Amino acid sequence: MKLSDLIAAAVAATLATPALAASNPAPDPTYRAEKCFGIAAAGQNDCSTRGNHDCAGQAKTANDPNSWIYVPIGTCSKINGGNTAPKKS
Q: What does each C-alpha distance from 89 to 30, 73, 78 come to in angstroms?
């Protein structure tokens, strides 16, 4: 394999990694957590309910009531707009 081919492969792998990482829900946190819906910034969610989207980082708007992030247990109810269940349709 030529050096230029190796470099091109490395660059392609580096560019593809973020796209692959964002195609799944976020991994479970190492602390005791609960899902908190309606508080994530746009593109900063850990996951969402089915039918909306189901991957990390795909919230199109901030405070999407069907997208969630992990927070320490007992914290969600203390956050303005936070809910431990998604918005009912």
A: 32, 25, 24
| SS3 labels along the chain | CCHHHHHHHHHHHHHHHHHHHCCCCCCCCCCCEEEEECCCCCCCCCEECCCCCCCCCCCCCCCCCCEEEEEECCCHHHCCCCECCCCCC
CA 27 to chain centre: 9
Domain residue spans of the chain: 25-89
pLDDT of residue 74: 95
**pLDDT tens digits, 9-67:** 656 665 554 554 455 778 888 999 999 999 999 998 988 887 777 788 888 899 999 89
Look-up of token digits 């007992």: 74
Please tell me the total number of residues recorded for the chain in this structure.
Answer: 89
Q: Which residues, listed in sequence order, are joined to residue 67 by a DSSP beta bridge?
A: 48
